[in-house]
Amino acid sequence: MVVYNVTWGKAQITYIGSSTVGKFMHDAVKIYDKVSFKIDTNPESGGGETATAFGKYDLGGVARDVKPKILNKGVKKFLIGRDAIGVWVNKSNPVSELSMEQLRKIFSGLITNWAEVGGNNQKITVYIVNPQSATRKVFSKAIMGKGNYAGNIQTTSPDPKVIDRVAANSAGIGQLSFALGNSHPQASSVKKINIDGKLASVNNPEYQITRPLYLITKGAPQGKVKAFIDWSISEAGQKIVKKNFVGR
Fold first, then answer.
1. Residues near 162 by Cβ (< 8 Å), separated by ≥ 6?
2. How far is the C-alpha of 12 from the C-alpha of 38, rounded, in Å?
3. Chain centre to alpha carbon of residue 238
4. 185 exposed, middle or buried (CB, 10 Å; 0-12, 13-18, 19+)?
5. H or E stretch including 61?
6. Which residues contact 205 (CB under 8 A, 6 or more apart)?
7. Which whole number is the average pLDDT over 56-84?
8. Which residues contact 94 (CB under 8 A, 6 or more apart)?
9. Potential cystine with 60: which of 7, 48, 79, 80 (Cβ 3.0-4.6 Å)?
10. Would you say the pTM of this structure is higher than 0.70?
């Protein structure tokens, strides 16, 4: 998604990267009026890292640890908060909890019917986000280990469309940021699954799939970019972060 928020006479900050960090950016646009913003979340975290490392954008957004090879190119990272990734199913699905092992088997195609985990006799459809998305990488590391996604898999882009797919399919299951799922227009048609008895909440320190959220710059930030980052980690900025995430 590309959003232009241009006010004539104001300096502009360009952002590229994570749609999850982009959620904060879109909220910040409504409050921070010292500059205008151009926001592009299509490339997700991977594309954001690359574009920022080449100095093509003022700010990048990464919803996981920033790759060492990117930091070695002179990129600086600034933690703004923490997010969690949810496992989402249709609201009508009687399953409300799964184990890590059950999830691994579902996303690797070893469990193919909801009846195998206490649900209805329906073939499972798995929705995963695109390979450039940090959501996919963080989820894979936490749940899949060294295993690969397999089975009745459908790759979905941009990330929030996972909720549209799960909302329309009573046998669907998908992976998506809590923030993007909770604020989605179809949020009332889906629900998050608890994992191994751990409540699916970003405020639960025992929940298994969490990640850091970073703004990144090529070199040390200056001027309008530094001012915005400083605001993002200030009390005022953190108030906006905490609308959807845990503060830094």
1. 88, 127, 128, 129, 156, 174, 175, 176, 181
2. 7
3. 18
4. exposed
5. strand 59-62
6. none
7. 96
8. 118, 119, 120
9. 48
10. yes
The predicted structure's pLDDT at residue 202: 78
Q: Are 26 and 39 in contact (CB under 8 A)?
A: yes
Residues linked to residue 174 through DSSP beta bridges, in sequence order:
88, 127
Buried b (16+ CB within 10 A) or exposed e, 142-176: bbbeeeebebeeeebebbbbbbbbbbebbbbbbbb
Q: Rounded to whole angstroms, how far apart are CA atoms 215 and 204? A: 24
Is residue 20 packed enough to be buried (19+ CB in 10 Å), middle (13-18) or exposed (0-12)? buried
At 140-187, the pLDDT tens digits run: 999 998 888 999 999 999 999 999 999 999 999 999 999 899 889 999
φ, ψ of residue 89 in degrees (nearest 5)? -130, 170
Distance CA 154, CA 116 (A): 21
User: 27: part of which helix (H) or strand (E)?
Assistant: helix 19-29
CA distance 157 to 181: 14
